[in-house]
Design goal:
about 190 residues
Length: about 190
Amino acid sequence: MGLISSLNKGQTPLDEEEMKGLLIPTIATREELDEFEQQNIEQALHWILKRSFKIESVLTEEFIKNIHKRMYGDTWVWAGTFRKTNKNIGIDWWQIAPAFKSLTDDARFWIANKTYEADEIAIRFKHRLVSIRCFSNGNGRHSRIMADILVGKIFGQPVFTWGEMQRDPRTKYLAAVKAADQNDIAPLLSFARS
C-alpha cells in the first residue's frame, strides 16, 4: 500500500498495526486518504459550530478524545484513543496522559489568572498539545481545531486563519512550530492570524 511511504514533511508515520485500523479498505493512495479524512473533519467542524462549550468540559481528556474521534472516526478504528506506540516526534506514549493533565492544569491556571491574552492561551495550548502527539495521526489538525474551539467558543474571538493568506503555509507553519519548540511563541501566534 502506498499510504505508508508517501508522507509530507512533518507528518507522523503510522506503523503496520495502525495501518490495519483503516476502516475503508478501498483507499489506495495518500490523496484518497487525505480527501476522506477531510470529509470527516468537515463533519466534525459542522458538529462543533452548532454547539457551545464550557471551559470545564473542553479542558478534559474526554473532550479532546471526542473531538479526535469526530474528526477521524469514519477513517480509523483507533480514532479518539491515545497512541500506544512511540513515534519519530512527540513524547513517549506512556507519558501522554500525565503530560496532557499537566497541560490542562496549566491552561486552567492561565485562564483563571489571565496570564496571557486569549490568542496566546489558545496557541500555547495548541503547541503543547501537538508536541505531546496524543494520537497516532492527525495531531496538527486536531490541535488547530482545539485552538479554534478555545479562541472562538470559549473566548468569543474570531477563529484563527492558520496562514490561509500565505504562500506555502505548511512550510511556514512547521517553521513557526519549531520556533515555539525553542520557546519563541511569536511566530506561531503571528502565523495563526495570517
